[in-house]
Amino acid sequence: MRIAALLGGGLMTLAALAAERPQVRTGTIVRAEPARHRLLIEETPAAVPVEYFARPGDLELPWAGRRVRFEVLVDGERRWADTIFPAGDEELRRVAEVTDALRRQTADQGRLVTRMPRDLIPDLALWDQDARLVFKKDLLGAPFALNFIFTSCRSAKMCPASTACMKQLGDELARDPRLKSVRLLTITFDPEVDSPGLLRAYAQGYGIDQTRHRFLTGDAGQIKDLMRNFGILTVRDDGTIVHNAALIVGNAQGRIAQRREGAAFDAADVAKVLAELALER
């Protein structure tokens, strides 16, 4: 909600609309109409679908037939469906199961919770930029590199630099067909804003290969515990998020091989490490 949306030939900013507490609704998306920049959402069973304007990223997702939660923003006569998240009962149940288990595990570990090299990564259940639910088991079987960002970060030396390095890393990996299965993962620590559709548009803005690189968002409590497990600290200050940064490199069994502090990193060097891990399989 903090980026500008170009729609219908005019430039408008959704931030002003989001400044007031938006109304949250649920419904089933009937269909998307990208040419008209609209989603049709059935808010009650058998009711006439309601038309909402939507961001380009949301219009590209396979929402048809899925139950979602969304925020309603009103701009004059235009109604926007923003910050759209899956809300199917079974999906939410599975997310809650992982979230609750991780919360107990994190609390039990106390100050010793941060995962270090040779430790296994924790369980997770988050949605990617295609609104698909991703679990830890889906990440196993190939080496990976993981970082944390938020899309509205204003510090050029933090999230933008980290994402640019991840893009370079993806390009390095693409040069060797043997590394096709290596995965890149980015988790947002601002899930109240960074929906699957917004993450999709963010990845497109960097020209990232989204078949390899998954951007993850979801339950705020689960992400907070994941940050603690990965040693990522944040403080909200002056309308933004102040944070540290690190790159986590893991093997095919989900065990951490390296932790590199800082937002920027040498993509070619990390690609070599991932190649070595791939050969160990």
Description:
The structure is a single chain. By secondary structure, this protein is an alpha+beta fold. The longest helix has 21 residues, at 89-109. Helices cover 30% and strands 31% of the residues. Strand 11, helix 6 (196-205) and strand 12 form a beta-alpha-beta unit. A five-stranded antiparallel beta sheet has the order 5-4-3-6-7. Strands 12-11-10-15-16 form a five-stranded mixed beta sheet. The protein is globular, with a radius of gyration of 19 Å. The chain has helices at 15-18, 56-59, 89-109, 136-139, 159-174, 196-205, 220-229, 267-280, and strands at 4-7, 10-13, 23-33, 38-42, 50-53, 67-75, 78-86, 125-127, 133-135, 144-149, 183-188, 213-216, 234-237, 240-243, 246-250, 256-261. Mean pLDDT is 91; it is low at 1-12. It starts with a strand and ends with a helix.
Chart the SSEs and their pairings.
Layout: E1 4-7, E2 10-13, H1 15-18, E3 23-33, E4 38-42, E5 50-53, H2 56-59, E6 67-75, E7 78-86, H3 89-109, E8 125-127, E9 133-135, H4 136-139, E10 144-149, H5 159-174, E11 183-188, H6 196-205, E12 213-216, H7 220-229, E13 234-237, E14 240-243, E15 246-250, E16 256-261, H8 267-280
Parallel strand pairs: 10-11, 11-12
Antiparallel strand pairs: 1-2, 3-4, 3-6, 4-5, 6-7, 8-9, 10-15, 13-14, 15-16
Write a concise synopsis of the structure shown:
The chain is an alpha+beta fold and 281 residues long.
